[in-house]
Amino acid sequence: MTTPRAIQFSFLAREQSEGAGAVVRRSVGTPQLRNFTPFLMLDHFRIPPGAGFPDHPHRGQETITYLLKGGVDHEDFAGNKGTIGPGDLQFMTAGRGIMHAEMPVQTEDINVGMQLWVDLPENLKSCEPRYRDLRAGEIPVASADDGKVEVKVISGKSQGVESLKDLAYTPVWFLDVTVRPGGKVTQELPQGWNAFAYTLEGTVTFGDGTKEVGETVTPYHNVVFERGGDVVTADVEEGAAEAARFILVAGLPLDQPVVQYGPFVTTSKEAVYQAMMDFQTSSNGFERAANWESEIGKSMGRVR
């Protein structure tokens, strides 16, 4: 027997400005949903040409960037650089320190994607930075309900299909789910993990283990599930005008404090102060930040 997860609450992610000219719908990391362990932030971003996220530091977290449309260039102080396109992802572990820039490909009209910040366990916060690009063609796809449901298994498992391994240090499942009119999916999730869905397109009804009728949700909402239970159910009514698309994310909760100051995520105030000092003095992981300037961010100036 499987137990459906009840819905704790849901809310609309409203647009706000971020970076230099970018617009984001932030849901995790807002007063409605702050530090939903291990998740620190979720942004649904739109970046026009000429905007972006010029040179900036990170410490103590991992980021998962999922591009839906357009292209984003990346460059860091260690000489790493690259571009992700539609359907591609980048998993970045900031660890003890990274400084990088993320800028849209200038030939695109608009660049749309998701960026999720995931906390690192205390014992890994001082690890060396690393990257793992995941290309659209590498992502296995599962199907259900006679083809009415398609799941891109970015990280985790769905309908018996497993993702590639070793994408991030903190255990996270990340699924891109499309449900066509008349379709229904029952998705397993690891017991005890925190989980949420973020709706991108169409209208979808998520089942609720405490009610006979679930909650029907339109785009740009974050649906937070209770920790109890082992499946999430979602369906789209037969006569719907379009398919529904959402990402379903689950992560292993971390039993540790979260102390965050902008891009620095630690477990104590002292460690945050130390991170700020290390960045300002280019030390303890930020040595290569001294006088470094990315090529892709030069047009926008350096943000310190």
Automatic annotation (TrEMBL):
SUPFAM superfamilies linked to this entry: RmlC-like cupins (SSF51182)
Domain Pirin C-terminal: 175-284
Keywords for this protein: Iron, Metal-binding
Zinc in keyword set: no
Naturally occurring in which organism (per UniProt): Knufia peltigerae
Name of the protein described by the UniProt record: RNA pol II transcription cofactor
Pfam families linked: Pirin, Pirin_C
GO molecular function: metal ion binding
Ligand binding (Fe cation): H56, H58, H100, E102
Domain Pirin N-terminal: 24-118
Cofactor: Fe cation
Cofactor note: Binds 1 Fe cation per subunit.
UniProt similarity note: Belongs to the pirin family.
UniProt lineage: Eukaryota, Fungi, Dikarya, Ascomycota, Pezizomycotina
Name of the encoding gene: PRN1
PANTHER family linked: PIRIN, PIRIN-RELATED
